[in-house]
């Protein structure tokens, strides 16, 4: 790879940071879980009503 000037880099960059401490990481993880369930619940309600 060095001979052809290619560099390694991450494939994916997360759009949000989980914070520096375990408390921030826990809070952001909990928020992500709640948002996921809320979106799933909303989609389920829409699908049931249609």
Helical/strand content category: mainly alpha
Secondary structure tally, helices: 1
Helical residues, percent: 55-70%
Distance between the termini: 54 Å
Count every beta strand, where a strand is a DSSP E run of 2 or more residues.
0
Please compute the radius of gyration using only Cα atoms.
Answer: 19 Å
Secondary-structure element pattern, one letter each: H
Q: What average pLDDT do the residues reach?
A: 84
Largest sheet: none
Extract low-pLDDT stretches. none
Shape: flat
How much beta, percentage-wise?
under 5%
How does this model look, in words?
- By secondary structure, this protein is mainly alpha-helical.
- The radius of gyration is 19 Å and the shape is flat.
- The mean pLDDT is 84.
Short synopsis of the structure:
56% of the residues lie in helices and 0% in strands. The chain has one helix at 22-49. The longest helix is centred in the last third of the chain and has 28 residues, at 22-49.
Please outline the helices and strands:
Layout: H1 22-49
List keywords for this structure.
single chain; 0% strand; 1 helix; membrane; transmembrane helix; 50 residues; transmembrane; mainly alpha
